[in-house]
Design brief:
The protein is α/β, with parallel strands linked by helices. 55% of the residues lie in helices and 9% in strands. Strands 2-1-5-6 form a four-stranded mixed β-sheet. InterPro entries: Mit_KHE1.
């Protein structure tokens, strides 16, 4: 399908060769400063749902791309990182070293380095948008649990509002008799999935939750297959590691792809686990009126998909990215819009 000139220009600026998965450069878009100033000066009265969203320290946002696909993104307050997690700290350290290696390769003036960067960027451009979406959702072991306000929860964890996965597992192992009671009266607050409503479409919370589960189930099979491809190909690069002064770039790339496919696979599994617990009660759909007001200007009720074909729609998208807090992955959301609605 032919893209409009407005969309093409907008996407070119935001999605061209974004190798860094956090896409920090996206904040430099031409509309950003103007939109932020306008939204800050409006002084509108916030809905209860938006206030809850802003106060929520760990949440998932859902951006409908059409009636079949949703872009999910997990957001966590930095204060929750105070929980000591050696595995998460190690992951952060390894990711930092990998980023340093890549930045050094990009800065090199050597012809082989430029050739390598150019071709790896082409490969990364082909990575599906769903990978970054599901990779943002952490392993269940890494996600801090929040105690509910039930009497049972207060009795079991009297002085805690946040509970680590290890503490939760220890509690269930030490008190197996509580497991059945917990199924009836959960001691953990469900995580909320905040979303705009799709104009002209009525879906029950169960239908939306089931669609989210079905998409996760479908994608987990894809990421599992990609993981095995990387693992099978990785040993073939070992001979390059013994060649002096030549970095094992194919091996590095396969490790990098294995890492992201593993994270995306784990994110899909976590969504599925949350859905199965208490028949989906481990996550709760929350519609925010302000999200819906902006989203309806991007959604075409005739074609039943998101469209960004004009300057005004681009500005509405900027506002939506700010209020839903997905600025850091805006380029990947646009990539998803193109893939699902324009190709």
């Amino acid at each position: 399908m032919q893209r409009s000139i407005a969309l093409s220009g907008f996407i070119t600026k935001t999605c061209s060769r974004n190798v860094n998965y956090s896409c920090p450069s996206i904040r430099g878009l031409s509309y950003t400063a103007k939109v932020h100033n306008e939204s800050d000066s409006q002084g509108f009265e916030k809905s209860k749902e938006l206030i809850d969203f802003e106060k929520d320290e760990m949440k998932i946002i859902s951006i409908p791309l059409n009636t079949e696909q949703n872009y999910l993104h997990y957001i966590q307050n930095d204060q929750l990182l105070k929980f000591d997690n050696k595995i998460a700290m190690m992951e952060k350290k390894v990711a930092g070293k990998a980023s340093s290696f890549w930045n050094g390769l990009k800065a090199s003036d050597k012809a082989i380095a430029k050739f390598t960067v150019k071709n790896i960027e082409k490969l990364l451009d082909r990575v599906p948008w769903s990978e970054q979406s599901y990779a943002s959702i952490p392993f269940e072991q890494f996600m801090i649990k929040r105690r509910s306000e039930s009497e049972m929860a207060k009795k079991i964890f009297p002085e805690k509002e946040h509970i680590s996965f290890v503490e939760y597992m220890q509690m269930t192992r030490n008190s197996p008799s509580l497991i059945e009671s917990i199924k009836q009266n959960s001691i953990i607050r469900p995580i909320k999935i905040y979303s705009p409503r799709i104009p002209g479409v009525y879906e029950s919370d169960h239908e939306v939750s089931k669609r989210i589960y079905d998409l996760a189930e479908k994608n987990t099979k894809y990421f599992k297959k990609e993981m095995f491809k990387c693992m099978l190909a990785l040993p073939l690069t070992f001979p390059l590691a013994i060649i002096p002064l030549v970095p094992n770039v194919p091996g590095f790339y396969l490790c990098y792809r294995l890492y992201w496919n593993l994270k995306a696979h784990a994110g899909c599994n976590h969504i599925m686990q949350m859905y199965h617990k208490n028949n989906g009660a481990s996550f709760k759909i929350e519609y925010v009126p302000e999200f819906t007001d902006l989203f309806k200007n991007l959604y075409n009720e005739t074609s039943k998909k998101v469209e960004i074909n004009s300057d005004s729609q681009q500005q509405e998208f900027e506002k939506l990215a700010k209020i839903m807090e997905f600025d850091s992955v805006k380029a990947n959301v646009l990539k998803a819009v193109i893939k699902e609605n324009y190709e």
